[in-house]
Amino acid sequence: MAKEINENKQVVQDEIGTKKEIKDINEVFEETEQKQTFEERKYNNYSKNIKTKNTNLIVILLIVISSLTILVAIFSTSFALFNISNTNIIDGISIKGIDVGGLSKEEAKQKVEADINSQLSKDINLKYEEYETSLNPAQIEFNYDIDTAINTAYDIGRDGNIFQNNYSIIKTLINKPNINLEFNYNVDNLNSLISDMDINLPNAIKQYSYYVEDGKLVITRGKEGNVIKKDELSNEIIDKIQKENQEDKNITIPVEVKEPDDIDIDKIHSEVYTEPKDAYYTTEPFTIYPHVEGVDFNVDEAKAMLQEVKDEYTISLQYTDPEITTNKIGTEAFPNLLSSFSTKYDASNKDRSTNLKLAMGKINGVILMPGEEFSYNKVVGERTIAAGYKEAAIYSNGKVVDGLGGGICQISTTLYDAVLYANLEITSRRNHQFVTSYVDAGLDATVVYGSTDFKFKNNRTYPIKIVGEVDGGVAKIDIYGVKEETEYEVRLEPVVINYIPYTTKTIKDSSLPKGKTVVEQKGANGVKTVTYKYLLLNGKVVSKTVLSNDTYNPMQRIVRVGT
User: Fold this and answer.
1) CA geometry: angle at 499 spanning 494 and 500, to 5°?
2) pLDDT of residue 49
3) Secondary structure class of 559 (helix, strand, coil)
4) Do 496 and 407 have their domain in common?
5) Could you tell me the pLDDT band of residue 398, with boundaries at 50, 70 and 90?
6) What is the pLDDT of residue 69?
7) Same structural domain for residues 393 and 519?
8) pLDDT above 80 (res 98)
9) pLDDT at 449 over 60
10) Rounded Cα gap, residues 99 and 101, in angstroms
11) Residue 101: per-residue pLDDT
12) What CA–CA distance (Å, rounded) separates 99 from 154?
C-alpha cells in the first residue's frame, strides 16, 4: 500500500515538474516574442526614419539639379546671346600659325594674305656642286586657299545649336586650334623647271637625240651622267615653300647617276615618217588645207648602222612631193584682192634686180593660214652666193657699200606696206638706218639674216595668199583672200617730227692733185617720224593708232681733198 502511494506521489511530482518546464518554456517564448516585437518595431522605426531622410535628400538633390540646370541654361543663353552679337572670329584661333582671333573676316584675310605673300615672295635656292639656281613659288603658280580657311575659322562656335556652339567656343579658348591652309600649284610648271635643272647639272646625263638637216637625219648617241631625283626634289620644294621659317630656303639637289636610253630607231621613224598629202580647200566652211611633204627612211639600214658604236649617225631621208602643193591652189580659193602695193627699182642695175627677183620668188605663192606667222628671213632664207645672190649696194657703218644680197630690203618693204593695207598684224619690224629712196620715211622694213627679221601674223578669219612679181622696174605684191563681214579701209600717214642735219667729213688724199676736191658720198639729213594708221568704214574714220616712231640717221657727206 505504501509502495503504491509512493508511486502515485512520484507520478504527481513528475507531472508537476513537466508543467513547470512547460510554463518556463512558455515564459521564454513570451519573452522572446516580446523581444522580437520590440526589435521589429525598432527596425521599422529606423527604416521609416531612413526612408524619410532619403526622400529629403532626393528632394534636395532634385532642387540642386534643377537650380544648376536653370543656372546653366541662363549662363548658356547669356553666353550665346553675347556671342551672337560677336561678328568676329572667336579668340584663340590661328591659321597656319597666324593669330586671327578677334578679327573680322576681312581683317583676318588681310593679315593672313600679308604674311603668306611675304613667305611666298622668298626664292628657294637650289644647289648641286658648282651649279646653283633659284625658284620662286610664283613660277609654279603656288597659292593657298585662304578664303576657305577664313570661313572655317569664322564658323567655329556658329555652326551648331546653343550648347554645341558654347562647347566649341570654350574648347577653342582652351585648345587654341591652328587651321591648316590647303594649297595647289601647277605640276607641269614644276616638272618643266626641274627638267631645265636636269639639263644644266654638272656632268648631266645626255639622252640620245636627233634632228633633220639638209635632207638628212642626224642621230646622236647619249652619255652616262647625273639626273635629278625628280619626285624627291618636287616634295622638298613644296615642303620648303610651306615652311614658316623664311630663312631656311636652301635645298641640295638630290642626284643619281644613270645610263642613257638606248636609241629607239622605230620610235624615231614613227616621229619622222610623214605621208605626202595634197593641198586642198573647202568652201562651206571656207578652209584651206596646206600640202604635206612625204618623209621616210630605211629602218633596216638604220638598225644595221647602229650596230657600230659611235657618237653620231647620219641617215639619208627620202622626200616625196604631193601632186598639188599649197601655192598651186587656184585663185578661185582666194576670190578677193585685199591689198596691193608696189615700189620702183632701177632695172638697169642687173645685180640688184637679180636679188629682188630671187627674194620675190621665195614669197610668191605663200599661203598663210589664220593665226599663222610669216617670217621673211625664214621664207627667203640666207642670202648666199650658192643661192644666186649678187653684190649690190647696202648700208653699212654709216656708208653705202656693196654687199651680198643688196636690195632685198626693197622686197621686205613692199611686203610690209601690202600687209599694212590688208590690215594684218605686224609682230616684228624695224626701220632702216637711213631714209630709203623707194618709200617715204616711216613706211619701210629692213631685214638682216640672223639678226633683224620682218614678221607678221594672219589675224584674219580666212587664209591669205601672197602674189608677188618683179618686172620692168616695178616690184609689186598683191594679197588675196576672202573679205571679212566688216572690211575696213586702211590709210597710212607718216608725219615728220623734225630733221637731223648731216655733217661733212673731209679726208686729205695724197692720190689726188693738190686742191682737187672729190665728193665720195653725198650727205643727207636724218629725220624723225611718227606714222599713223587709220581705219575707215564707209569713208568715215573709226580708229586712229600710232603705227611706229622711227629715227633715221643723217648720212654724212664725205669729201676727199688732194694734197
Assistant:
1) 135
2) 59
3) strand
4) no
5) low
6) 56
7) no
8) yes
9) yes
10) 6
11) 87
12) 13
Say whether 37 sits in a helix, a strand or coil: helix
Residues 483 and 505 in one domain: no
Which one of 74, 105, 126 terminates a domain? 74
Mean of per-residue pLDDT scores for the chain = 84
Using omega within 30 degrees of 0 as the cis cutoff, is the peptide bond preceding 285 cis?
A: yes
297: exposed, middle or buried (Cβ count in 10 Å: 0-12, 13-18, 19+): middle
**pLDDT range class, residue 6, cuts 50, 70, 90:** low
In a domain, 258, yes or no: no
Q: Give the Cα separation of 402 and 382 in Å (integer).
A: 17
Given a cut of 60, is residue 482 above it in pLDDT?
A: yes
Determine what percent of the chain is predicted with pLDDT higher than 90.
47
63-73 average pLDDT score:
59
In-domain check, residue 521: yes
| Contact between 475 and 439 (Cβ < 8 Å) | no
- Taking residue 335's Cβ as centre, other Cβ atoms within 10 Å add up to 11
- Pairing, β 367-368 against β 464-471: antiparallel
**Could you tell me if 244 and 96 are in contact, meaning their C-beta atoms sit under 8 angstroms apart?**
yes
Same domain, 367 and 461: yes
Nearest CA-CA partner of 426 in 398, 408, 445: 445
Residue 12's pLDDT is what? Answer: 45
Is 29 inside a domain boundary?
yes
427-461 b/e with 16+ CB inside 10 Å = b?
ebbbbbbbbbebbebbbbbbbebeebbbbbbbebe
Decide: 105 and 89 in contact? Cβ < 8 Å: yes
Final residue belonging to a domain, choices 74, 103, 138: 74
Residue 112 has pLDDT above 60, yes or no: yes
| Per-position DSSP letters for 313-325, written without gaps between them | EEEE-EEE--SS-
Count up the domains in the chain and report the number. 4
Q: Which three cell numbers stand for residue 125?
A: 635656292
At 511 the pLDDT is 86
Residue 256 lies in a domain: no
The residue behind cell 541654361 is: 73
Residue 204 per-residue DSSP state: B
Whether residue 465 is found in the same domain as residue 521: no
DSSP secondary structure of 384-453: -TTTT--EEEEEETTEEEEEETTTHHHHHHHHHHHHHHTTPEEEE----SS--SSS-TTS----BTTTB-
Three-class secondary structure of residue 365 per DSSP: coil
Confidence band, pLDDT 50/70/90 cuts, at residue 406: confident
Specify whether 277 is located in the same domain as 350: no
Check pLDDT > 80 for residue 60. Answer: no
At 40, the amino acid letter reads E
Domain identity same for 560 and 500: yes
Q: Does position 267 have pLDDT exceeding 90, yes or no?
A: yes
C-alpha cell belonging to residue 158: 556658329
Alpha carbons 429 and 444: distance in angstroms, whole number: 9
Cell of residue 552, nine digits: 633715221
Q: Domain limits at 33? A: 1-74
What is the spatial distance between Cα 499 and Cα 558, in angstroms, rounded to a whole number?
A: 19
> Which residues are bridge partners to 250 per DSSP?
125
Per the structure block, which three cell numbers stand in for 159?
A: 555652326
CATH code: domain of residue 520? 2.20.230.10
Q: Cite the beta strand spans of 174-304 per DSSP E.
A: 178-179, 183-184, 209-213, 216-220, 225-228, 250-252, 255-258, 280-283, 286-289, 294-296
Same domain, 314 and 394: no
